[in-house]
Amino acid sequence: MFATGIENSIPTINGGKTRVDQMEASDHYRRWREDFDCVEDMGIEYLRFGPPLHKTFLGPGKYDWEFADLTLNDLKRREITPIVDLCHFGVPDWIGNFQNPDFSQQFANYAADFAERYPWIQLYTPVNEMFICAAFSAKYGWWNEQERTDLSFVTAIKHIVKANVLAMVEILKRRPDAIFIQSESSEYFHADSPAAIGPAEVLNSRRFLTLDLNYGRRVDSEMYEYLMDNGMTREEYHFFLGNRLKQHCILGNDYYRTNEHRVHADGRTEAAGETFGYCEITRQYHNRYRLPIMHTETNMREGPTGQEAVQWLWKEWANVLRLRNVGIPTVGFTWYSLTDQVDWDTALREKNGNVNPLGLYDLNRNLRNVGKAYKQLIKDWRDVLPASSVCLAVPIKPIGHDCWPPRDDYAGKQVEAQDKGLALGNQSQSTPESA
């Protein structure tokens, strides 16, 4: 699945008074048809996309579906498969922020009604980058609740992940063959000195918290104590163990140069740049969860020569091929996003209007060098990879086809669906390194 995305981030800053809306900043609300033309011109058939939650979800049971209807039905007409991104770093004003215990159920209700309205949609990312969302909102004090304590961080984690799990439950009731592609940040913390080994180990355990809970995996003992010490109850913890939907998931992971960190003895961190790289860090996540992998986000600034992003694309793609070549089932790649982004140079902490040249297209919808390179990459590799794959075929239904199996036959077919779907099955040989 070669993909790109149209970012629908909506965090609030300034104590909740200012909304940072990436669709507004990129002029997508006005130019969405043109943006979809760009997706088609690239030869991209999968698009990470979703309606802005704060403009769509107006209150309990109250929705404004106009923009969602226009855009999603146009994607359906174009036969571009959406990977629907329902919640991206923010919530509507009436919910407040991720400290609100009502968020999880309210979001699940929204997901249920969304799936009811768009039964042809199969691929979902219910909550984008759960770990980053919780850390930036409730540990670093940057977005939404702007808290900085372990208590607020754990509270955000349990509400965010519960929302994601409940949303999956509700969507599966309406689309039993739904596939959930987590888009989660893949992190690593490097010890700067022997005295920093302890703090680095704690951070390297903490990075798995959202996915451990989401996949119903028992957390490490140190993280269990951390959760219990900071407000999670045993009942809340067992909710995650009792709602294991891993068999419906693809582990989508994101990698940027900012994802690796250098840890000092006092616990301070700083950017480490690309040290291990995507392939090595993804091996760690795959070894833990044993799920198919999709590279769901990466980008790089175009830079002064115009080739910096092109070189990064090539490097990330080489990492993806390496994963496949060593037998890790890898099913997709994404350059994120379609157009340049705005104010990510300050991690959306300030609303300055600074354009970040990270997209396949600039904000005038002119194709950047990396867009040309990605278009050629897709053309070159589209037909080669399926023929050389020994991993699995993702059971995606063509747009407009009914879901499989029929709802009334779901109970009897669930195991069979898993066998035909995301279960890895037999892998009898290795892809040649030359692939």
TrEMBL record:
Residues 415-435 are annotated as: Disordered. It comes from the Bacteria. InterPro entries: GH, Glyco_hydro_1, Glycosyl_Hydrolase_39. One of its GO terms (biological process) is carbohydrate metabolic process. GO terms for molecular function: hydrolase activity, hydrolyzing O-glycosyl compounds. Residues 425-435 have a biased composition (Polar residues). Pfam families: Glyco_hydro_1. Coiled coil: none annotated. Gene3D superfamilies: Glycosidases. This is Beta-glucosidase/6-phospho-beta-glucosidase/beta-galactosidase. It comes from Sphingomonas kaistensis.
